[in-house]
Structure formats: structure tokens, C-alpha cells
Request: fold
Amino acid sequence: MSGTGNLCQVFYDEVRIPIENVVGDINDGWNVSMTTLGFERGTAFIGHQVALASTVDKLVALAGNVSAADGCGTAIEDGAVASALGTLRAQVAALRAMTYLSVSRGLVQEVPGPEGNVIALYYAELSKKVYALAVELLGAEGLEKRTTERDWLTEYLDAFKNTIAGGSSQIRRNVIGERLLGLPRGR
Reply:
């Protein structure tokens, strides 16, 4: 647990819902849940994506302020680090483009399709990469200075929740394979 407390599971037993509060048809909860998850896995990540783009910019600044692994100059002067930062910026732009496509499709579709799984999966994996690079750049110093302005280590650990919430990365891959690529259903 990262300490942020943003992930939980709740069970309700023997709950009665007044008929006027039922969403969708009686005994059609699966379709209601899938529609809700379609939104959650797609366009609901827009705010998180904006924050992730800002985080990449802060990571670039961090790379300019920490020493390179070999001790010569700053981390951003290392070609491999600069390349990794450029790749992360490009991947954030790709994520934004996928979201624009999803929003555009949403204008003509009443119910979101399984495409939101691609966005959610990509976001989850990308956020882990962003924070992993920060932890790598900080090295042992990142463990020692966890109370500074930005706690990159806690944010790295917190990023793993995105590979679970709203359906794990494995579930998302299965949905993408079955519903988008037409692959046979997994066992």
C-alpha cells in the first residue's frame, strides 16, 4: 500500500434498492457495469493524462537537477536518459491522441466500445514507466529524501494501482484481444 488510500473494495449483502433508483433494466447489471467501465476505462482518464503530461515535464526538470549515473554532468546530459525522456513525451502525446479519437467516437456512439481498454492499459503502463524513470534517476537519494516537495517513490508505488483498478491489465488485454482483435476467448 502506497499510503494514499485511493483503492478499495466494498461488498454489500442483502441490500434492497427502490425500483425508482435502479439503473437500466432489472437483472441487466452486467450491461450497466460494462457501460460504466467503458467510460471509466476511456475518457475518464483525461484528467490523469493531463497530470501525467505535467509529470513528464517535471521529470525533465528533475533530470536537469540530478547527477548522471556516472557522476559526469547531469542526468539529462546522458544520451540514454534524454532518449527515455523523449520517448515518454512521445508516448504521452500518443495517449492524448488515442483519447481524442475516443472522444470523437463518443460523439456518434451512445455507449462506449471496448476501445477504452486500450487507453486504460496504455495509461497504466505508461504511468509506471514515468515514475520508474524518476526513481532510477534519484537512486538511493530517492529513498532517503521521501519527505521533499515531491515523493517520486510513493508516486511510483501508487502507479501500480492503475494496473488493477477498473479491471487488471490482464483483463484489459483479454478484452482487447477478444472484442477488438477478434481473437478466441481465453481460458
The chain has a mean pLDDT of 85.
